[in-house]
UniProtKB/TrEMBL annotation:
Residues 276-366 form the Peptidase S11 D-Ala-D-Ala carboxypeptidase A C-terminal domain. This is serine-type D-Ala-D-Ala carboxypeptidase. Pfam families: PBP5_C, Peptidase_S11. The keyword Hydrolase applies. Removes C-terminal D-alanyl residues from sugar-peptide cell wall precursors. One of its GO terms (biological process) is cell wall organization. Belongs to the peptidase S11 family.
């Protein structure tokens, strides 16, 4: 009989269950909600009230940008509507009827946080602002951002517009995997249109994100402020081949809050790079284990691991982490090649950090009476 195994869900499921291990003093963070995650594993390295839905201001535009990249064409011509033109500052001052390439407008969206640009993009991609916001929320949910609801494409305060710090970091980590997105958010200066377009107007753009100028390895990504949200920031950086993403929502108000949002992210980044190192824990390999097979001529099935697990660990964790095989006592034929039979678990201090499936290397048919007779005669 099959032994009940933990549900595997997907091929590789990393347990992102708010577990952090502090090998040094925790970072000084003032944000109402804050989190630090490692991109490849998604592991949470630090969190403070990370899962509470909060207003997130213009960090919203991270989703606006990545969704436009995925759903639109960068050479599309976007025509400014009256609704877009009348959006409140900060704005590019697009004129009604002004035309710009979608790819060019994304620079204005992310470098200068222009609200009119966000509306123009939303109308172009979604047909309406409202439908585009529905697309944004659906996309967020698809990547695991469960405490997020978008009602505006620019982050201006609205009823039902919110996200958690964890969700914003998750969205940021997802967006940074896209080369076009990374190119946009790390650009310091650019003038649009980059390609002459009829009815276009020249705009000189400068990246207002001070983080990219001041932190080693920085690769973006987005600041934000509204009266309700306070100062917010989602930032990313790469050092030692480790991409970290940090988010601080509600870091403060006024000039102090404007600086604090950067300080929060920098303190979290420094904490992460000081205390964690990426470690290869599991690599793809054949014949990791065998399991006895009942009702088959072949007596056991060989199991393979097809996944790789790389996780950030502290020095203490590296000394205590181990891999556990979880296998059934036996399996009943038939079995198909690639079928999940067991799993490997990465465990540290009694906590499962990650788990990957072990799958059958070959298909094995169920044996019938005639098969046993033929086998006996052959012997």
């Amino acid at each position: 009989m099959k032994k009940t195994i933990l549900s595997l869900g997907v091929t590789l499921f990393l347990c992102l269950t708010q577990v952090t291990y502090a090998s040094s003093s925790v970072p000084n963070v003032k944000g109402k909600g804050a989190v630090l995650i490692e991109q490849e594993s998604g592991r949470v390295l630090y969190e403070h009230n990370a899962y509470e839905p909060l207003p997130m201001a213009s960090t919203t535009k991270i989703m606006t940008c990545i969704l436009a990249i995925e759903e639109g064409k960068l050479d599309d011509i976007v025509t400014t509507s009256k609704r877009a033109s009348s959006a409140p500052p900060v704005k590019l001052h697009l004129k009604v009827g002004e035309k710009q390439r979608l790819g060019d407008l994304l620079y204005a969206l992310m470098l200068q946080s222009d609200n009119d640009v966000a509306v123009a993009i939303a109308e172009h991609i979604g047909g309406s602002v409202e439908h585009f916001c529905e697309m944004m929320t659906k996309k967020a949910q698809s990547i695991g951002a469960e405490h997020t609801s978008f009602k505006t494409p620019n982050g201006l305060d609205a009823e039902g517009h919110y996200a958690s710090a964890y969700d914003m970091a998750l969205i940021g980590a997802y967006a940074l995997k896209n080369p076009e997105f990374r190119k946009i958010v790390t650009t310091e200066l650019i003038s649009i249109p980059t390609i002459p377009t009829e009815n276009s107007v020249r705009h000189d753009l400068q990246n207002k994100n001070r983080f990219i100028y001041s932190y080693e390895g920085s690769n973006g990504i987005k600041t934000g402020f509204t009266n309700k949200a306070g100062h917010c920031f989602v930032g990313g950086a790469v050092r030692n081949n480790m991409q970290l993403v940090a988010a601080s929502l509600g870091a403060g108000w006024g000039s102090r809050g404007k600086t604090q949002k950067y300080t929060d992210v920098i303190n979290m980044m420094n904490y992460g790079y000081k205390n964690y190192e990426k470690v290869v824990l599991i690599e793809p390999q054949e014949e990791v284990a065998t399991v006895p097979i009942d009702k088959a001529l072949i007596k056991e099935v060989k199991l393979s691991c097809n996944d790789k697990v790389v996780m950030p660990l502290t020095q203490t964790e590296k000394e205590n982490v181990y891999i556990k095989k979880v296998l059934p006592t036996n399996w009943v034929a038939p079995i198909k090649e690639g079928e999940t039979v067991g799993e490997l678990q990465v465990i540290c201090d009694g906590v499962i950090l990650a788990k990957v499936p072990l799958t059958a290397e070959e298909s094995i048919d169920k044996a019938h009476l005639l098969d046993y007779i033929k086998q006996w005669l052959k012997k």
